[in-house]
Amino acid sequence: MIDFDLPTPVKRQVQFIGMLGEQVMRPVARYYDEHEGERPWEYINLIWQTVRDQGGRNFSADTTPKLDKEGKPRPRIGYLMLAHMVEALSWGDAGLYLSTPGSGLGGAAVDATGTPAQKERFLKRFAEGEPKWSAMAMTEPHAGSDTAAIRTTARLSDDGSAWILNGEKIFVTSGAMAARDSQGFVVIWATLDAKAGRAAIKPFVVEAGTPGMTVAKLEHKHGIRASDTASIVLQDCRIPRDNLLGSEEIADVRAAGNKGFAGAMRTFDATRPLVAASALGITRAALDFTVQYLKERGVTIHYGLPLHQQSAVERDLMQMEAQHRAAWLLVLRAVTKMDAGEDNALEASMSKVKAGQVANFVAQKAVELLGPEGYSCTLLVEKWMRDARINDIYEGTGQINRLIVARRLLGYSSRELR
User: Fold this and answer.
1) Would residue 38 show up in a list of annotated catalytic residues for this protein?
2) HSE (CB half, 13 Å, CA atoms) of 255?
3) pTM of this structure
4) Cβ density class 3-22: b for 16+ within 10 Å, e for less
5) Chain-centre distance for alpha carbon 298
6) Residue 154: which of 97, 111, 114, 213 has the closest Cα?
7) Out of 120, 373, 395, 416, which one is annotated catalytic?
8) pLDDT in tens, 81-104
9) Alpha-carbon torsion 140, 141, 142, 146, what sign?
């Protein structure tokens, strides 16, 4: 029998974050939506203690084996914990959640591609001190989903002691905070040889304040406005040679142990289910509010009635709830496989596609069902609709993730199915 009861540590964490979302995030959600670019320091300082309690790894799971009283290995629950935390924070407010300090997406890239010494060097800092951020920069003005077209270059200096980076990255989540704040860093994906394609794409850690790395622009966005999204320019940016994560060798992307472009894909396998969890936090916020709003106005949902006896509102709400539950089960499957150390690339993309689709469907339906009030700025529903939109775009668009799913199911390569 499948047991869906949450482990006690996860329950405690979700309960705490639920209170944080209700008492700290929701009351200021509209303010930071309307004051884009202003940092939510009250939230940041409060959540930082929780992040430090997790070792600073707010986007990375603790994979250290745990033993029970009899000395037997316990099942790992690191990614399961993260998925529930991300969902609960996004229920509070997705934009504020994305401004959470910690190792972030950059830390996930270090986890997936770095050596043990690099992980120690770059991630340990997030367990102490003041709030700090990391970011991952892959997208470029001419290369969105086509990562093979990356033009940002990395070359060795004449004396061989450093890498020199040149290029431009756009839509970098938390880019300004990671690039400017003390002890933060940005993982820049750059090519050692443009002619070699994906095989030459490597991740480089660029520390905050490094000369030659400039935050050129902060985006004014449709949604998730409490989070900064930056453009970063690299102009003769010099970093230590050992800031390249993993090997310098240009190897086939399918080669065992290749931590270049394949490492980027492993990063996404870890983070896409968490993006899906965030989408479903927004989904639950819209769904909970809509059900309560209609209940207060005398609308009762009659579960179990045949379809022809249901009202249009009842059919819509039931469909919203069913889609939400289906998407959440895909997320749980993806993170459970990740915790078990199994390949979850298919499940990660499935959960990302489904959750992005469901978040947009449910949030838009909520606005529709609430009528003029849903469309107005009186309620947060219209904000949730705007916040939901990004979940079908970043960390791989819905179209790209559908391609990944199709290739995995049909056994095609990227060359065979585009």
Assistant:
1) no
2) 14
3) 0.91
4) eeeeeeebeebbeebeebbe
5) 38
6) 213
7) 395
8) 999 999 999 999 999 999 999 998
9) positive
